[in-house]
Specification:
Elements: H1 13-19, E1 30-34, H2 41-47, E2 51-55, H3 63-83, H4 96-119, E3 123-124, E4 140-144, H5 156-169, E5 172-176, H6 189-198, E6 202-207, E7 218-223
Parallel strand pairs: 1-2, 1-4, 2-3, 4-5
Antiparallel strand pairs: 5-7, 6-7
Keywords: Methyltransferase, Transferase
GO molecular function, one term: methyltransferase activity
Protein name: SAM-dependent methyltransferase
């Protein structure tokens, strides 16, 4: 991956809690965050005593490189959000400016923790569909704003292989959102559910309390077979 292809955009622990219905018991589990990028989720949860490993291709780059890239893409992302303001629900964020401030705060928190987290192996360079972890190494795997959302870049088979790998390394998988960038349900969602149901895997949809992209009200939950 080249740095110019990276679009870093980080979310907070509070957002992760709402996107994935994370309760107090979940915070004590060993968690894998897939595609976390510059989210402050890892830093915040670690400070609370949590056990979390985040994987992302962006972690091959240095703190300064990631910081510089954030500054390069920030105005571009914000311009796109403002142009498509109607596609989002503005109840959690008062305005695009409030959203930008929240994102920058989360990413700055990540950057302050990044070098320490790299040493502690909490930020691991890696990407789906192949993860360098043992079977059932994690209690819970979370995949935020990657699978389904970018379906135009990844095939149905890519999705099945990636989710199969997440199921291999964790006891439970939660994926959010389930919409494409166009704001419609992913074309792959039904096929993915049917695939895992055929394998006898427990899979279902669960309402979440988070919604920024209009219609993104559910996550996919997959429980690994015993």
């Amino acid at each position: 991956m080249k740095l110019e292809h990276v679009v870093p955009w980080g979310r907070t622990l509070e957002e992760y809690q709402r996107m994935f219905n994370l309760g107090e018991e979940d915070k004590h589990k060993k968690i894998l965050g897939c595609g976390d990028g510059p989210a402050s989720f890892n830093a915040e949860l670690t400070q609370m005593g949590g056990r979390i490993v985040s994987i992302d291709p962006i972690y091959q780059f240095s703190k300064q490189q990631i910081s510089d890239r954030i500054e390069q893409v920030r105005p571009i992302i914000m311009e796109q959000i403002i142009q498509n303001k109607g596609a989002y629900l503005w109840n959690q964020f008062e305005s695009p400016l409030h959203l930008e401030q929240t994102r920058l705060s989360a990413m700055n928190h990540f950057l302050a923790d990044y070098d320490k987290g790299k040493v502690e192996q909490r930020y691991v360079h890696g990407s789906l569909p192949k993860l360098n972890f043992a079977d059932k190494e994690f209690d819970l795997a979370l995949c935020s704003h990657f699978l389904f959302l970018y379906e135009e870049h990844f095939s149905l088979q890519d999705h099945i292989q990636s989710i199969t790998e997440l199921v291999r390394v964790s006891k439970e998988v939660r994926i959010y959102p389930l919409l494409s960038l166009e704001g419609t349900q992913s074309n792959y969602l039904t096929s993915v559910i049917e695939h895992f149901e055929r394998l006898g895997t427990k899979v279902g949809l669960e309402e979440v309390s988070y919604q920024f992209q209009k219609g993104a009200t559910k996550m996919l939950v997959i429980l690994a077979n015993e």
